[in-house]
Amino acid sequence: MDKPKGNAREDILNTAERLFAENGIQNVSLREINAEAGYSAAALHYHFRSRDGLLEALLLKRQEPVMTLRAELLQPLQEERRPSVESLAEALVMPFAHPILNDPETGLTAVKFLFRAYVEQSHHGQIRKTTERSLKTFEPLLARALPDLDQTRRRSRWLLATELTFQGLANMDAIMALSKQSHARKSREQYVQTLITFIAGGLRYRG
Protein backbone atom coordinates (compact mmCIF):
# COMPACT_ATOMS: atom_id res chain seq x y z
CA MET A 1 0.00 0.00 0.00
CA ASP A 2 1.26 3.49 -0.86
CA LYS A 3 2.03 6.15 1.70
CA PRO A 4 -0.97 8.43 2.23
CA LYS A 5 1.11 11.62 2.10
CA GLY A 6 4.25 13.05 0.60
CA ASN A 7 5.74 13.51 -2.83
CA ALA A 8 6.00 9.98 -4.19
CA ARG A 9 8.42 10.87 -6.98
CA GLU A 10 10.89 12.62 -4.65
CA ASP A 11 10.50 9.96 -1.95
CA ILE A 12 11.36 7.22 -4.44
CA LEU A 13 14.28 9.20 -5.90
CA ASN A 14 15.75 9.93 -2.47
CA THR A 15 15.35 6.33 -1.32
CA ALA A 16 16.86 4.92 -4.51
CA GLU A 17 19.80 7.31 -4.31
CA ARG A 18 20.56 6.35 -0.71
CA LEU A 19 20.34 2.62 -1.40
CA PHE A 20 22.40 2.90 -4.60
CA ALA A 21 25.04 4.94 -2.75
CA GLU A 22 25.23 2.49 0.14
CA ASN A 23 25.02 -0.83 -1.70
CA GLY A 24 25.87 -0.30 -5.36
CA ILE A 25 23.47 0.26 -8.22
CA GLN A 26 23.41 -3.34 -9.45
CA ASN A 27 22.87 -4.69 -5.93
CA VAL A 28 19.58 -2.89 -5.27
CA SER A 29 16.30 -4.20 -6.66
CA LEU A 30 13.22 -2.17 -7.48
CA ARG A 31 11.37 -4.23 -4.88
CA GLU A 32 13.82 -3.06 -2.20
CA ILE A 33 13.37 0.56 -3.27
CA ASN A 34 9.58 0.26 -3.18
CA ALA A 35 9.63 -1.39 0.25
CA GLU A 36 12.05 1.15 1.74
CA ALA A 37 10.20 4.13 0.26
CA GLY A 38 6.80 2.78 1.30
CA TYR A 39 5.17 2.79 -2.13
CA SER A 40 3.80 0.09 -4.39
CA ALA A 41 5.43 -1.04 -7.62
CA ALA A 42 2.70 0.87 -9.46
CA ALA A 43 3.96 4.20 -8.07
CA LEU A 44 7.50 3.61 -9.31
CA HIS A 45 6.23 2.49 -12.70
CA TYR A 46 3.95 5.53 -12.96
CA HIS A 47 6.74 8.03 -12.30
CA PHE A 48 9.73 6.33 -13.97
CA ARG A 49 8.38 3.49 -16.15
CA SER A 50 11.46 1.31 -15.55
CA ARG A 51 14.69 0.87 -13.61
CA ASP A 52 16.56 2.70 -16.36
CA GLY A 53 14.07 5.55 -16.20
CA LEU A 54 14.62 5.83 -12.45
CA LEU A 55 18.40 5.87 -12.88
CA GLU A 56 18.22 8.50 -15.62
CA ALA A 57 15.97 10.72 -13.49
CA LEU A 58 18.47 10.51 -10.62
CA LEU A 59 21.40 11.30 -12.89
CA LEU A 60 19.63 14.34 -14.32
CA LYS A 61 18.68 15.54 -10.84
CA ARG A 62 22.29 15.43 -9.65
CA GLN A 63 24.20 16.29 -12.82
CA GLU A 64 22.30 19.40 -13.92
CA PRO A 65 23.25 21.52 -10.85
CA VAL A 66 26.86 20.34 -11.24
CA MET A 67 27.00 21.45 -14.87
CA THR A 68 25.33 24.79 -14.07
CA LEU A 69 27.79 25.70 -11.31
CA ARG A 70 30.71 24.47 -13.40
CA ALA A 71 29.69 26.74 -16.28
CA GLU A 72 29.64 29.70 -13.87
CA LEU A 73 33.13 28.87 -12.60
CA LEU A 74 34.55 28.39 -16.09
CA GLN A 75 32.99 31.45 -17.69
CA PRO A 76 35.65 33.93 -16.42
CA LEU A 77 38.42 31.58 -17.61
CA GLN A 78 37.24 31.49 -21.22
CA GLU A 79 38.95 34.79 -22.08
CA GLU A 80 42.20 34.09 -20.25
CA ARG A 81 45.18 33.33 -22.45
CA ARG A 82 46.52 30.81 -19.95
CA PRO A 83 44.03 29.92 -17.21
CA SER A 84 45.55 28.62 -14.00
CA VAL A 85 45.55 24.90 -13.38
CA GLU A 86 44.22 25.59 -9.88
CA SER A 87 41.18 27.36 -11.34
CA LEU A 88 40.44 24.39 -13.58
CA ALA A 89 40.83 21.96 -10.67
CA GLU A 90 38.46 24.13 -8.64
CA ALA A 91 35.90 24.05 -11.47
CA LEU A 92 36.14 20.26 -11.45
CA VAL A 93 35.85 19.74 -7.69
CA MET A 94 33.63 22.53 -6.33
CA PRO A 95 30.38 21.68 -8.15
CA PHE A 96 30.48 18.28 -6.41
CA ALA A 97 31.79 19.64 -3.10
CA HIS A 98 29.38 22.56 -2.77
CA PRO A 99 26.35 20.43 -1.78
CA ILE A 100 28.46 18.60 0.81
CA LEU A 101 29.54 21.85 2.43
CA ASN A 102 25.93 23.08 2.58
CA ASP A 103 24.30 19.81 3.66
CA PRO A 104 26.86 17.08 4.43
CA GLU A 105 24.45 14.15 4.71
CA THR A 106 22.54 14.83 1.50
CA GLY A 107 25.62 16.04 -0.38
CA LEU A 108 27.71 12.99 0.51
CA THR A 109 24.91 10.65 -0.51
CA ALA A 110 24.66 12.43 -3.86
CA VAL A 111 28.41 12.22 -4.52
CA LYS A 112 28.55 8.56 -3.49
CA PHE A 113 25.70 7.81 -5.88
CA LEU A 114 27.41 9.69 -8.73
CA PHE A 115 30.67 7.87 -8.01
CA ARG A 116 28.86 4.53 -8.13
CA ALA A 117 27.23 5.54 -11.40
CA TYR A 118 30.53 6.74 -12.89
CA VAL A 119 32.26 3.45 -12.05
CA GLU A 120 29.45 0.91 -12.40
CA GLN A 121 27.39 2.47 -15.19
CA SER A 122 30.05 3.95 -17.49
CA HIS A 123 28.19 2.43 -20.46
CA HIS A 124 24.97 4.30 -19.60
CA GLY A 125 24.06 6.89 -22.23
CA GLN A 126 23.63 9.71 -19.72
CA ILE A 127 27.02 8.98 -18.10
CA ARG A 128 28.79 8.86 -21.47
CA LYS A 129 27.07 12.05 -22.58
CA THR A 130 28.09 13.93 -19.43
CA THR A 131 31.68 12.65 -19.54
CA GLU A 132 32.05 13.66 -23.18
CA ARG A 133 30.46 17.04 -22.50
CA SER A 134 32.85 17.63 -19.60
CA LEU A 135 35.88 16.71 -21.70
CA LYS A 136 34.72 18.94 -24.55
CA THR A 137 34.30 21.85 -22.13
CA PHE A 138 37.63 21.46 -20.37
CA GLU A 139 39.93 20.36 -23.21
CA PRO A 140 40.53 23.78 -24.83
CA LEU A 141 41.14 25.31 -21.41
CA LEU A 142 43.51 22.49 -20.44
CA ALA A 143 45.39 22.95 -23.72
CA ARG A 144 46.01 26.60 -22.85
CA ALA A 145 46.80 25.89 -19.20
CA LEU A 146 49.12 22.94 -19.95
CA PRO A 147 50.64 23.64 -23.39
CA ASP A 148 53.62 21.35 -22.75
CA LEU A 149 51.40 18.25 -22.48
CA ASP A 150 50.05 16.50 -25.54
CA GLN A 151 46.32 15.84 -25.86
CA THR A 152 46.58 12.19 -24.84
CA ARG A 153 48.33 12.99 -21.57
CA ARG A 154 46.01 15.91 -20.82
CA ARG A 155 42.95 13.75 -21.37
CA SER A 156 44.35 10.85 -19.34
CA ARG A 157 45.21 13.11 -16.42
CA TRP A 158 41.83 14.82 -16.54
CA LEU A 159 39.94 11.53 -16.41
CA LEU A 160 42.15 10.44 -13.51
CA ALA A 161 41.47 13.78 -11.79
CA THR A 162 37.73 13.22 -12.23
CA GLU A 163 37.89 9.80 -10.60
CA LEU A 164 40.07 11.15 -7.79
CA THR A 165 37.51 13.91 -7.21
CA PHE A 166 34.74 11.35 -6.76
CA GLN A 167 36.85 9.13 -4.51
CA GLY A 168 38.17 11.99 -2.42
CA LEU A 169 34.73 13.48 -1.82
CA ALA A 170 32.81 10.22 -1.42
CA ASN A 171 35.31 9.09 1.23
CA MET A 172 35.62 12.50 2.88
CA ASP A 173 34.31 11.46 6.29
CA ALA A 174 36.50 8.36 6.49
CA ILE A 175 39.65 10.23 5.45
CA MET A 176 38.93 13.10 7.84
CA ALA A 177 38.38 10.64 10.68
CA LEU A 178 41.66 8.83 9.94
CA SER A 179 43.52 12.14 9.86
CA LYS A 180 41.79 13.18 13.11
CA GLN A 181 40.04 16.20 11.63
CA SER A 182 36.72 17.47 12.93
CA HIS A 183 33.65 17.43 10.71
CA ALA A 184 32.96 21.14 11.14
CA ARG A 185 32.32 23.17 8.00
CA LYS A 186 35.72 24.89 8.22
CA SER A 187 37.49 21.52 8.32
CA ARG A 188 35.46 20.31 5.34
CA GLU A 189 36.38 23.48 3.43
CA GLN A 190 40.06 22.89 4.20
CA TYR A 191 39.73 19.28 3.05
CA VAL A 192 38.18 20.36 -0.26
CA GLN A 193 40.92 22.94 -0.80
CA THR A 194 43.55 20.27 -0.14
CA LEU A 195 41.89 18.03 -2.72
CA ILE A 196 41.88 20.87 -5.28
CA THR A 197 45.56 21.60 -4.63
CA PHE A 198 46.45 17.90 -4.88
CA ILE A 199 44.62 17.52 -8.20
CA ALA A 200 46.21 20.68 -9.60
CA GLY A 201 49.65 19.32 -8.68
CA GLY A 202 48.93 16.05 -10.46
CA LEU A 203 47.73 17.82 -13.59
CA ARG A 204 50.81 20.03 -13.63
CA TYR A 205 53.34 17.24 -12.93
CA ARG A 206 56.03 17.16 -15.62
CA GLY A 207 56.85 13.46 -15.43
UniProtKB/TrEMBL annotation:
HTH tetR-type domain location is 6-66
Q: Does the keyword DNA-binding apply?
A: yes
Keyword line: DNA-binding
State the InterPro entries in the record: Homeodomain-like_sf, HTH-type_TetR-like_transc_reg, HTH_TetR, PsrA_TetR_C, Tet_transcr_reg_TetR-rel_C_sf
Q: At which residues is the DNA-binding region annotated?
A: 29-48
Top-level taxon of the source organism: Bacteria
The answer on whether this UniProt entry bears the keyword NADP reads no
One Pfam family it belongs to: TetR_C_30
Tell me the Gene3D superfamilies matching this sequence: Tetracycline Repressor, domain 2
Offer an example of a GO molecular function term for this protein: DNA-binding transcription factor activity
Q: What is this protein called?
A: HTH tetR-type domain-containing protein
Annotated source species: Pseudohalioglobus lutimaris
Lineage at the top is: Bacteria, Pseudomonadati, Pseudomonadota, Gammaproteobacteria, Cellvibrionales
